[in-house]
Design brief:
mainly alpha, 0% strand, membrane, cell wall biogenesis/degradation, CASPL, CASP_dom
Length: 100
């Protein structure tokens, strides 16, 4: 996020500069991909805590730790909602870039 700040300042100072705005769109796409990857890996871990894995000899732990499973499931849902918001941000940024 700190890397985005100089490009954001350039876009505020020079609103008609297209290259910094295009770089911001690319960075938004990279950030969205990172959030989707993190949410997907977290959902795999939550799936293993709920169901376990017979092949790996992992037992389901949600019978013992119900609060952990509820909180981790909600965290995964919030992560995917954040990815959806970032996808909307990329679309809005692209449309704004095209209009200028």
């Amino acid at each position: 996020m700190v890397l985005f700040l100089p490009f954001s300042i350039v876009c505020i100072v020079r609103p008609l500069a297209l290259k910094p705005r295009f770089i911001l769109v690319i960075m938004d796409l990279l950030l969205m991909a990172l959030v989707v990857v993190a949410a997907s890996s977290a959902s795999a871990v939550v799936y293993l805590t709920h169901n376990g894995s017979q092949d790996a000899n992992w037992n389901a732990v949600c019978q013992q730790y119900t609060d952990f499973c509820q909180v981790s499931s909600m965290a995964v849902v919030v992560s995917f909602v954040a990815a959806l918001f970032l996808a909307c941000l990329v679309v809005v940024s692209s449309v704004a870039l095209k209009r200028t």
